[in-house]
Amino acid sequence: MAGFLGRLRSALSVRTVARQVFSLQAAIVVLLVVAAVVALVLQSRADSEREARNRSLAVAETFASAPGIEEALAAPDPAAVLQPRAERARKASAVDFVVVMTTDGIRLTHPDPAQIGGPYIGTIGPAAAGGIVRETVTGTLGPSTRAVVPVTDAEGKVIALVSAGVTLEAVSGVVEHQLPLLLGAAAAALAVATFGTALVGRRLRRQTHGLEPAEMTRMYEHHDAVLHAVREGVLILDGDGRLALANDEARRLLGLSPEAEGQLARELGLAPDIARLLASGRPATDEVHLAGDRLLAVNQRPTDSGGGPSGCVTTLRDTTELQTVTGRADVAQERLKLLFAAGLEIGTSLDVERTSQELADFAVPRFADFVTVDLADPVLRGEEPSQRGAAMRRVAFRGIRDDTPLYPPGKLIHFVPSTPQSLGYGSGETVLEADMTAFSGWQAQDPERARGLVDAGIHSMIAAPLRARGVILGVVTFWRSRKPEPFEHDDVTLAEELAARAAVVIDNARRFTREHTMAVALQRSLLPRALPEQNALDVAHRYLPAQAGSGGVGGDWFDVIPLPGARVALVVGDVVGHGLHAAATMGRLRTAVHNFSSLDMAPDELLWHLDELVTRIDQDESGDVAPVTGATCLYALYDPGSQMCTMARAGHLEPVVVRPDGSASFAAVPGGPPLGLSGLPFETAEIRLPEGSSLVLYTDGLVEDRTRDIDEGLELLRRTLAHPGRTPEQTCGAVLDALLPEEPSDDIAVVVARTRELADARTAVWDVASDPSAVGQVRAAVTRTLAEWGLEEASFTTELILSELVTNAIRYAAEPVRVRLIRDRVRICEVSDGSSTAPHLRRAATTDEGGRGLFLVAQFADRWGTRYTADGKVIWTEQPLLTGTSDNDG
């Protein structure tokens, strides 16, 4: 025995690679065989148990559902009927028992007839409730698996239980059949391992090329001489990352100890970046790394690329003399990158304060620890800054922390002349305060605050003026605290570049702010400052100009125009473009609509004249001015007497009609072309609006947004308006709450008009016969009506006006002649006839017998005029109500 152990120890201690490989492979094969046997045994046990569970459950379920079970259970002696069936099933299915029992567990069948009538030993509760019991127990026959299933009648009621069981030994036995195969496979594996060992030996001999020992020694000597003679450091690391070879130059450059060979790269005490490179083994070409006070250019290549051993070879070259030049180049490159990034991040909007904050956010912490931006107050209003004094408002602040004594944003600061901010603002030159702890004059602004700044660690600053197009807008101050080195003159150049880039953007934002402010002021001056007094409509409106930076002020506008006969015109329009030109054009169109309305034109005729005007405007304007063509307009005319609303539109969105019951729908107004296209007619639509209805006019800025389709906006508007009982003011608020975009890119105008009815008690109508004697009857009727209204003092002038108008209608016009008297905010007299010939005012000579009628009418009436209808014309006059008389008296 001792001799055998000695031979085994001798075999395992051999040095040859082939024998070591053979021993290793043999051990692996043995381990695999043992593992396979263990796995097979475990798998066999698991399969046996699973097969036993499945077989017992299948047999129990099959027997429980077999035909005739229910009838057998109902027999006088169910055990006598079921026992032979159960035994046949047990033998046919190769299970150890099939037991039928009552729901209480009393056996009706059993392989041992003596056990019939006894209680079943096992769990039956879940099966009696309609479930299934599966369990593994150890009995007299060894481990076995059994299943208990219910027997149910046609109504699903459990009437009995069936249990089947089988021992694990009955379904096992796989291992005994597979052991011979496993041992044969192990013998084959050993044979393959022996053959593989022979192949490895042949490959080793081929790789050494059959060199003699002397030849290999001479090659090593030559290789050693080359490594020690070269003036570059050479390192060779094996596949484990251990240092296999280091020449003299590498030891000198890296400061390696004599015991360095054999150690891991990370254990050599090298600089972290060089150690990581050596440990990684990745290829590298002229990578520059710092080793102590030397700057090394490192090249690294793997040694196994040509079939050689794993590892890598690294060469080191001392480039310390290039360090200074490289450092300056890196600094210049970093500053170029910083300025490039500044051009991308500073100036994303045309807002002065936001641009200033972007400058501060960008510079911290890339260039400074704290940044403050102070601008002259006029700059924030879009005006030219004044160079008198150094009063500036702090508009931006950013720092690595907030607990500093620096002035907060929003503070108006009056800098004293000795401060760098005042010097830079006044001279336009950047001021460097390299050592704030010297208190060379900058502390005169606030000595106590200055001591707090120094105590907080702020030790140097640069104050750079924000100069753009020859104008100094303010000062940006860069403060340093965390970095111990103070700002240098090279930093001043970078600060000036940052300030110059930001100043141009701030000046652009200032100019845009000025233009936007002017456009808003012009636009607001051209829009109605107050709604006119009238009784036909209860009107509310909202107007929101576009935000600065979102296109500027547009040309949206609206108007409410009282017309003769207690009627009211509603107008809303939108001019193409933004800015001052759009606002001025809007004013021209609004004035034109006022003038055309005074002529009492129908909506379609008014739009036709407005279309002609736009065409002439575009023809007269120079090519540098944006055209007006494409402007839209909606004109609606409401008559409270008939409750009819006549509308026409030129390229504008349809208005929404809200009925008194709260239902909302878009008015079917024919769509005409935008203004300025000419040649195409406009059509009108007449809609009856009962008292309490609302007419909603709006511009496209309300329903159109970048994140929402216009159809979605229109539907949202309709749903928002579909609400009964709201006042016009409440409706305007609800519409803006639901549809107002976060950043409106266009003007928004909304007009909500709720209709009123002209009550019968406030009007009187008479048909006049074509007979001069009828004039007296009209005068008498007018006198009675005015007395009923409490306006007896106005009878004389009213009778005189109507006498002249009715006489002219009877004498010169055609039938029918009708007189209507209206008591509104003014007293209105209307005489209509069937003639389209308009009367004209003239001055009669002293010898003329006639021609003074209209002259008298013009003298006694505040206003008078003529409007045409489809059947003729109406001559109307307006007179004021007497003082103290309410226009709402019924």
From TrEMBL:
Its subcellular locations are: Cell membrane
**How does the UniProt record describe the way this protein sits in the membrane?**
Multi-pass membrane protein
- Domain (PAS) spans 219-259
CDD domains tied to this protein: HATPase_RsbW-like (cd16936), PAS (cd00130)
Q: Where are the transmembrane segments?
A: 21-42
InterPro entries, per this entry? Answer: Bact_Sigma-Reg, GAF, GAF-like_dom_sf, HATPase_C_sf, HATPase_dom, PAS, PAS-like_dom_sf, PAS_4
Main localization (coarse):
membrane
The name on file for this protein is: SpoIIE family protein phosphatase
